[in-house]
Amino acid sequence: MTLGLRMLAKSPGWTVVMCATLALGIGLSTAIFSLAYSLLIRGLPYPDSGRLLTLWLTNTAAAAANVSRFNTNAGNWVDWRAQSQSFQDIALTKVGTSFNLTGDGEPERVLGALATWNLADVLGVRPLMGRMFSEEETRRSARLAVIGYGFWEARLGRDPAIVGRKVLLNSEPYEVIGVMPPEFRYPDKDIELLAPLFIRPDEMRSQFGFSYRAIGRLNPGVTIAQGQAEASAITRHWAEQFPRASGGGEYGVIVEPLLEGSVGQFRSSLYILFGAIGCLLLIACANVSGMLIVRASARTREFAIRAALGASRGALRRQTLAEILPLGAAGGAGGALLAWWLISGLMPWLPPRLQGMAHVGMNLEALTFALVLSLLVVLLAAMLPARIASRAQLSTAMQQDSSTVAGSGGGMRNTLVAVQIAVTLVLVFAGSLLARSLAAVMAVDPGFFPQGVLTMHLQTTPVKYPTESRVVDYYDRILKRIRGIPGVVDAGMISLLPFSEQRLVNPVEFEGRPDQGSIGSDGRSVTPGYFAAMGIRLVRGRDFSDQDREGSEPVAIIDERLARVAFGDGDPLGQRLRFGVITSSTQWLQIIGVVGHIRGDSLETDPRPQLYWPKMQRRPESQQQQDRAALVVRTSGQPASFASAVIEQIHGEDPDQPVYDVRSMQDWVNRSLQSRSLLTALVALFGASSLLLACVGLYGVVSYSAGIRGREFAIRLALGARPGEIHRLVLIHAGRLWICGSVIGLAAMWAAGRALQGLLFGVDRIDAISLVSALFLLLAIALIAGSAPARRARRVDPAVMLRRE
To answer: Where are the domains of the chain?
Structure first.
């Protein structure tokens, strides 16, 4: 190692470039490894987490409405537990549950879940303090709470005497009976509180009420396929007990690992990142190897003399490797620092639903990976230089002139640079495809105007607002207060905000059209003023008004897509529809208006039409859920500047009302692009890094080649060649390397486009613009890398050069 340090010290310029190249490749690779290891390899923080499965229901009618899976109901859970032989146990949690925390200080919203008593046993965890609630306590809806570690630490100051105390949740006292450990993160990584899930006896025999998430633990030795087959058979038997509702389809079940539900959609992005980082590592390895070949070629006579004095080939190989090991150590250290910085910057951009994010960082596994990778890259890069060193012959080396000796290994250098160009083409092409896809997504019209719109959520409690009419009156008073704020254009409320990753899909049936069947649509309840606040255009008819209240004629507004599907070119106004659980007693609603269609899930997908009904009219029984609403406020300025004034008006009506998820509507739209934007940015970063490395590699090879051809250039100039001809010779060498690399890269670019096809939007996998842009960008890099050596070559003084030779 001491010998290596002395040798590296003789060429500090080479050392800095190679260390920087290694640090860049190793740092980016380590950051992606830490992310993938924490999310995919390390798994979930529960014992035998591979046996934890999520059970989802399916329905052929729902699939026709682009709903591939949905939550289960209580009846399924009862049958699965009673009849299953494959599962140790199955637990339920009620999704979309939160609590209003009041008492000391400002009112806060606590993200919680209602859970069955056996959830902790299924997950294999135990409370850090206290206990879990019992089965008997869930049957009587006891006011008990098991709080999360984060809640206990951040809001209760890690009070060791918290067990037995009471906190005010939803205006009712709840007794804290336990504290969960830090690793508990179910059903969401941000969960703060668990309360007993009380299920009414009649709900356990109902065909509907799909508002629960089921998780089960397989028995040892039972495969996922066996659990799937058994759960499917039980589900089919459950469905046979009920008459088919209008528009109802065949029920099924999907059984998948719990980890898949958390990272499944992100897995393909991680694979793309692994492929991109593999390409970057290959470029870094080729770059370092090319520089080491130059050094080894220049030392051919030295190696030949050592061999003549008795050094074996193995000794020469070991000497070469020993000289390079400090390079790997320095590159690995720099890579670890770069990885730490990159991980810190990545964390805020990761999708919030991912579990396992707490383990992402420069931990022992990541540091070990950086160390092993640095050694591996250096050893691979040193293979060719070591081969040159071990095959040096004294007689041959002494007979060659300096140019010939220095020029040995030129074919390998050129090949390595061509490989760098080919791989760089792939990365630049992939980055261009993803960037153009992102631009195409961002150009999609969502059907509303998010600019200038402020949103926030609030939730009422049954204790303070026990009836629907009380809730509606409360919302109405809030809206009147907010509309009086200077700069507020309009305001309204909606049950589920677009782009909020929540949806309520309803089958819709139109009167007098029995052959048409039911049409799946997104259903939302809104107040007057919502469409104006969101910028959704009214196509025909009228908006909801204050007269559309409970007791008046039930009404609805449909979007133009639903109107077109149901009525074609006909007029839907005055027609009637019904939705939800469609039976003979389901009420009919008169269509009073048609509004523009919006994209409610994301800019990339447009699966269903929309249906709206007035929040002031009582919802169908099947739609009842926690009284939660999103407030939408259109402002004349920056939305964030109105947030405090809006919240002040809400607290002026009810001081105990928590307000949460305060953000602009544009933020919701941007959040839907978060994963795509992150992937595009990382691949673009890798592409830019590869361009830098390719430029360095090209410059090094062209510059070195021009240097060893100095005698040739001097003779050409002495015989009358013009300096411009010498300049062209050097650039032609760079151009040939670009052509060779491009030929290899074209086939790889086709494969890259095919691999990215599932992530592309509005762009073909062999996009001509991306293809031509990548080729010409690399050509420009080749010309830039060759321009400086070409300028030096044209300034060669023939007299000086020939006298030196």
So the answer is: 461-656
Q: Which of 422, 424, 433 is nearest to 754 (CA)?
A: 433
Residues 6+ apart with CB under 8 A from 392: 300, 301, 303, 304, 307, 316
- Confidence label for 389 from pLDDT (cuts 50, 70 and 90): low
d(CA 146, CA 163): 9
284: amino acid identity, one letter: A
At residue 488, φ and ψ (nearest 5 deg) are: -85, 120
Residue 714 has pLDDT above 80, yes or no: no
Q: Which residues of 645-681 are buried (b: 16+ CB within 10 A; e: fewer)?
A: bbbebbeeebeebbbbebbbbebbbebbbebbbbbbb
Q: CB under 8 Å, gap of 24 or more: what pairs does 499-505 form?
A: 499/446, 499/600, 499/601, 499/602, 499/665, 499/668, 499/669, 499/671, 499/672, 500/630, 500/668, 501/601, 502/96, 503/600, 503/601, 504/623, 505/62, 505/65, 505/67, 505/70, 505/608
Do 606 and 521 touch, CB atoms closer than 8 A? no
| Lookup: tokens for 603 | 């800019």
**Phi, psi (rounded to 5 degrees) for 438:** -60, -40
Contact (Cβ atoms closer than 8 angstroms) between residue 462 and residue 627: yes
Q: How far apart are CA 107 and CA 170, in angstroms?
A: 10
What phi and psi, each to the nearest 5 degrees, are found at residue 565?
-65, -40
- Asked which of 28-32, 262-266, 600-604, 681-685 is least confident by mean pLDDT, the reply is 262-266
Q: Which string of b and e fits 482-493 if b means at least 16 CB within 10 Å? A: bbeeeebebbbb
Token readout for 364 is 């022992």
Please report how many Cα atoms fall inside a 13 Å half-sphere around the Cα of residue 245, on the Cβ side: 22
Confidence of residue 536 (pLDDT cuts 50, 70, 90): very high
Q: Are 506 and 586 in contact, with CB atoms under 8 Å apart? A: no
Angle at alpha carbon of residue 804, lines to 799 and 805, rounded to 5°: 100
* Confidence check: pLDDT of 473 > 60: yes
Task: Print burial letters for 695-718: b (CB count within 10 Å at least 16), e (below 16).
Answer: bbbbbbbbbbbbbbbbbbbbebbe
Q: Which residues pair with 509 in a beta bridge?
A: 578
| HSE-up of residue 725 (Cα within 13 Å, Cβ side) | 11
Residue 103 binned pLDDT confidence (cut-offs 50, 70, 90): confident
Residue 580 makes CB contacts below 8 A (sequence gap 6+) with: 506, 507, 523, 586, 620, 622, 623
Contact 49, 262 (CB under 8 A): no
- Give the position of tokens 């949740």: 169
Query: Does residue 798 have a cis peptide bond before it, meaning omega lies within 30 degrees of 0?
Result: no
Best CA proximity match to 89, nearest among 76, 77, 100: 77
- pTM here? 0.80
**Are the C-beta atoms of residues 328 and 739 closer than 8 Å to each other?**
no
HEC readout, 451-487: CCEEEEEEECCCCCCCCHHHHHHHHHHHHHHHHCCCC
d(CA 251, CA 55): 13
Alpha helices in 211-299 (DSSP H): 224-239, 258-298
- 100, 145, 327 from 174: Cα distances, Å: 12, 6, 61
Beta bridge partners of 53: 216, 257
Model confidence at 190: pLDDT above 50: yes
DSSP structural state of residue 552: B
pLDDT for 398 beyond 80: no
Angstrom CA distances, 75 to 55, 200, 231, 232, 445, stand at 13, 11, 13, 14, 41
Q: How far from chain centre, in Å, is Cα 164?
A: 40
